[in-house]
Amino acid sequence: MSLLVLDQVHYAYPARHTLFGGRTEIRAVAGVSLALERGRTLGLVGESGCGKSTAGRLALGLIEPDAGSVAFGGEAMPAPGTAAWRALRARVQLVFQDPLGALDRRLAIGRQIAEPMVIHHLGTSDERAQRVAQLLRAVGLSPDLEARYPHQLSGGQRQRAVLARALATRPDLLVCDEPVSALDVSIQAQVVNLLADLQEEFGLTILFISHDLRLVRLFAHDVAVMYLGQIVEQGEPTAMFAAPAHPYSQALLAAVPNPQRRGPRTLLAGEPPDPAARPTGCAFHPRCPISVAQCRSEAPALRRRADGRLVACHLAHADAAPC
Amino acid sequence: MVKPPSPDPTLAAATALIELAGLRVAFDGTPALHGIDLSVGRGEALGMVGESGSGKSVTWLAALGLLPHRARVNGSVRLDGQELIGAAPDALAAIRGGRIGLIFRDPVSALNPVHRVGAQIGEAVSRHRGFNGAAARAEARRLLDQVGLPDSSRRLDAYPHELSGGQNQRVMIAMALAGEPDLLIADEPTTALDTTIQAQILDLLDGLRRETGMALVLISHDLSVVGEVCERITVMYAGRIVEDARTAELLGAAAHPYTKGLLAAVPPLEGPRRRLAAIPGNVAQAGDLPPGCAFAPRCADAVEACAAQVPRFEEVAPLHRAACWRLAGAAP
Predict the structure, then answer these.
(1) Which residue of A23, A95, A180, B41 has the fewest C-beta atoms within 10 A of its own C-beta?
(2) Cβ distance B6 to B51 under 8 Å?
(3) What is the sign of the dihedral through the CA atoms of A191, A197, A202 and A203?
(4) Which among A151, A118, A148 has a CA at the least distance from the CA of A136?
(5) Which residue of A has its CA nearest to B149?
């Protein structure tokens, strides 16, 4: 059974007032279904504004979907603020991009790692102290760093401390939102390897939200590409990156800097789209190099191909009328 | 073994546009740059790569007199023979935005939010080229066309907040081109942008360089980014240059263990799922460097000599230099 299931979830950010008092809404997530399998990593990729972080907040239960449902461990996600929801907080944890912003500058590292255990009434004070030392070792930090303050650590050490704190309550699910984007290249690899080790050791399920396709390809077991609040393609990363089916996945991959690329690259024209002004039909059609008339009028469904890959494109399924 | 003849050094010197020699910077007594020797040829595209604090940005900020007063700068920076270190503020101001254009990571904070972009580009045009009024506006429009901003006549009247991040970066590039520079220094110009927009901006910079013949210094933490656009790459670590080579050679036959580590840490786009190759340890901190090679504490190949003395920056192949005792053959 999947640990977490999002079933056709929708989420729009509260209305924005336009010049003449009209209201528009920003449909950040527009019908997303995802299943996270235990002990596995799902990579969620896409450009800024595609709704990947909002999907992460829905997965954490921090916000409630406008439509559709979220289930954790086979049960419906409790409403934010309820006692059941607070109890669930220990089982799902979030890791952000900026470790310095996620840590309290005035509190020693050890106290911050112990804090979730205090909040969830886990263990005695002695047991918590032991667990802090154990967690620091698990993330590759020396236990005597517990007395240090965040500014006394390097960026990589801080992100390790954030991971130690996230693991304090023995969570089942870790939602990592760009967890290594703020780190130096040589340190990124360390932290991603650490995540892989921790996953194996503790059987963690990870939702890995990132714009870095290279990283996602090596780290995730399954990858979903989002565009304007919807999944346009999903499948096993090695196969998908070798032969992306959706024109947007193809464009994203072509944009990855690659000095070894042979031949000229195909540039995606235009800007990342505005979620407040969603195009008709397939949301990608204004930037799509191969769109046909049907793409402008009819939104393609996310359907499974024979090889198991999910793709939402009329042309990839070869069911579009020739133009 | 007979070494192949090294290229004539006087030839390189004759075509150098800008030459940095022994450039040192210290902040409040803590050294941040330990003597940089670097030259950029006319029309050359040079990539500068390194981690945060490696000194890749400080090098160029120091060269252009843009560091705060508490920074102590020593050494020499010559632009076509003209010394910039210690030059009068007016002379430096004329060079910045004139012969040397600059663009930064975050275009929105570099632009003035209360002025229309056309006026801002126009100001740069009139300051460095003496155009005024309608002529300046026409030139601003031409520049926006040149940087590929669609609908340029309407965009002239837009404010920065009305444009996207990629469009603002195009505006910044247009401003940098206003002085018809011989050198454009682009410091992490695409780091804040989405990958598809990054690809557009890199493509634009590459095209502009070929079109105008200006030299380009592209500063980035991302080897793949500079590898796409630059002809030559300089790798910095802890305030020193550790390797410098033509792009293909650096990517294909890196000599310094740090460069090799950086290359290995880039996740490949092909092949099976596997663990990443990480460089162990932490990035060196400016105030806390070992007496020898700054990379030695993280280096798998380090020998005793590495901890004792800073390695010399020497030729390891034609047009390829590196600072590593293991390559120098004889350690001290």
Answers:
(1) A23
(2) no
(3) positive
(4) A148
(5) A270
Q: Which two tokens stand for residue A71?
A: 């289930």
**How many domains does chain B fold into?**
2
User: How much is the average pLDDT of A269-295?
Assistant: 88
Q: By C-alpha distance, which of B85, B52, B75, B77 is closest to B219?
A: B52
Q: How confident is the model at residue A22 (pLDDT cuts 50, 70, 90)?
A: low
Give the pLDDT confidence score for residue B288 in this predicted structure.
84
CB contact under 8 A, A214 and B265: no
Same domain? For B171 and B221 the reply is no
* pLDDT tens per residue across span B118-170: 999 999 999 999 998 999 999 999 999 999 988 888 999 999 999 988 999 99
Which structural domain range is residue B149 located in?
114-178
Q: Which 3 state secondary structure label does DSSP give A293?
A: helix
How far B78 CA sits from the closest chain A CA (Å)? 31
B281 found inside a domain: no
Between B52 and A40, the more confident residue is A40
Nearest alpha carbon to residue A231 among A5, A55, A58: A55
pLDDT at residue A268 greater than cutoff 90? no
Spatial distance between the Cα atoms of A228 and A288, rounded to a whole number of angstroms: 14
Do B174 and B204 lie in one domain? The reply is no
Do B278 and A186 count as a contact with CB atoms less than 8 A apart? yes
Tell whether B138 and B253 lie within a shared domain: no
- The answer on pLDDT for A33 being more than 90 is yes
ipTM of the complex: 0.85
B82 touches chain A (CB under 8 A): no
Q: The tokens of A217 are what?
A: 């390809």
Shortest distance between the Cα of B143 and any Cα of chain A, in A, equals 19
Number of Cβ within 10 Å of residue A197's Cβ equals 14
Give the end of a domain, one of B129, B146, B178: B178
The CA distance from A181 to A111, in Å, is 26
pLDDT at residue A16, as a whole number: 61
Q: Which of B72, B12, B73, B69 is nearest to B42 (CA)?
A: B12
Give the CATH number for residue B34: 3.40.50.300
From chain A, pick out residues whose CB is under 8 angstroms from the CB of B269: 213-214, 217, 241, 253, 256, 258
Name B25's bridge partners. B33, B73
Name residue B141's amino acid. Answer: R
Mean pLDDT score of chain A: 91
Regarding whether B252 and B186 lie in a shared domain, the answer is yes
pLDDT in tens, A62-117: 999 999 999 999 999 999 999 999 999 999 999 988 888 889 999 999 999 999 99
Residues 6 or more apart whose CB falls under 8 angstroms from that of A43 comprise: A208, A209, A210, A216, A217, A219, A220, A222, A223, A224, A237
Query: CATH fold of A4-91+171-311, please?
Result: Rossmann fold (3.40.50)
Q: Label residues A277-299 b or e (16+ Cβ within 10 Å = b).
A: eebebbbbbebbeebeebbeeeb
The dihedral sign for the CA sequence A243, A248, A251, A255: negative
Residue with the bigger pLDDT between B108 and A295: it is: A295
Q: What is the pTM of this model?
A: 0.90
Backbone angles phi and psi of A32, in degrees to 5: -115, 130
Q: Is residue B284 part of a domain?
A: no
Provide, as residue numbers in chain A, all residues whose Cβ is less than 8 Å from the Cβ of B279. 186, 189-190
Please check whether residues B48 and B165 belong to one and the same domain.
no
